[in-house]
Structure formats: C-alpha cells, structure tokens
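A favour, since you know our structure tokens better than I do. Could you add the entry underneath, on a fresh line?
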Amino acid sequence: MASHPSEHEPNRADLHKDPSRVSGMFDQVAPAYDRTNTVLSMGNDRFWRAATTRAVAPRRGQRILDLAAGTGASSVALARSGASVVAADFSPGMIAEGRRRHGGIPNLTFVEADATDLPFDDDGFDAVTMSFGLRNVNEPKKALAELLRVTRPGGRLVICEFSHPPSPVFNGLYRFYNDRVLPVVAKTVSSNADAYDYLNESIRDWPDQRTLSAWIRKAGWTDVAHRNLSMGIVALHRATKPLVAPGR
C-alpha cells in the first residue's frame, strides 16, 4: 500500500483509489473542505445536504450511521433531530477536524472507519447514509454490502452521489464547467487543487443512476429508487433492508 505523502507535498489520488492515497488527500484538504465545496458547487451542496437529511428522516431515539461524513456537516444536520449519530470516515484528518468543530454535540460521535470493513455490529443502525463518498471507495459494491450488514431489518439506506445529467445539452454544459471552470476556481480556493482534478475524473468515471441502482439491488437492498437533484448532477438513491433475509 502506498505511503502517505509528507505534510507539505500535495497528495493526488487517481482512479485506482488506493485507500492510503485517497485518505491522505482528504487529510490535506480537511480544514477548508466545506468552504471549498460550497464555492465549487455554487451553494448547491447545502440543498443536497438538506434533501439527504429529509430522505433519511431522522427521529429521536434512532441510531444513524453517516458514512464518509468528512468534517461532520451532514452529521450535524441529522443530529439536530435528536437521533444518535455516528459520523464515520476513513480520513483521520477529516475526523480530527470534525471533532474540533462539533465535538461538543452530545448525540454525535466520530469514528475512523473503512467503508469495506465497518467496525460495527450487525443490525445496529436504523438508517445508514453516505454522501459523496461511495465514489471514492475502491470496492463500492463491498461497501454497499457492509452498509446492509450493519442496518437493522426494515432500516433505510440513503446514498447521495454525483451522477450523470440525462439531458445531453445540460450534460455538455456541466462537463464544460467541470473541465474548464472548476480547475481554475479550485486553484484559488483549495489548499490542494490537484485533489479536485481527481474529483472531476472520478465523477466522469462513475456509473449512471440506473447502474448504481442495480448495484444497490444486487447488494441485497429492496425498494430501490432514486431521484435526480440539480437536473441530475447529483442523484439521491434510497432503499430498505428486507425484514427477512433471502432464502429464509
């Protein structure tokens, strides 16, 4: 496994998605991560986060896993309901930044975790959610199976992820923004502009809405559905864990 670069050497992951390099890249961008995302998404990240929270529908007394939580912005929104929220991420830098910002919230805990080998018991969460993180996992299908394992029967899955706008015209404009505009803006606002080159590549390489839905269904989830946000720049996928395991 590749080693982390030095503190001052910019780290850039690639589409092989080596966990060490991806984690190191997110460690480096952690302090300015949320501000950069707001700028690059032209404020849409807040709308996407709100839509995800509504889809999860957290309630007091529930236990919710927010995987790939980053600095915990999405986790805080879930915790406002009174639910017990576990914010998990495989980047130690993101977890440290999350604890620094939100460590005083009593029903929110931060845990370093690998999406393909979660350190949680079976059937332990009422809902699991992952925003803009599945795309960075080197074995996303394995992560979907792990999320199923740790969710109680009847529990919910919500995945918010970049996708592919169905309109050819709008998709062309979106690709122009990502290829030409985003890199210039990233150099201005990010501490590691190369990380956002990887972001652009990973979005282009990621499967479309129907393919991801098929992956979720194959992992064992039922009632799989999705809806597009921002004309398909992002898709919100939802599913349920069966009450009875297949074959029983």
Remarks:
- The CA atoms of residues 17 and 136 lie 6 Å apart.
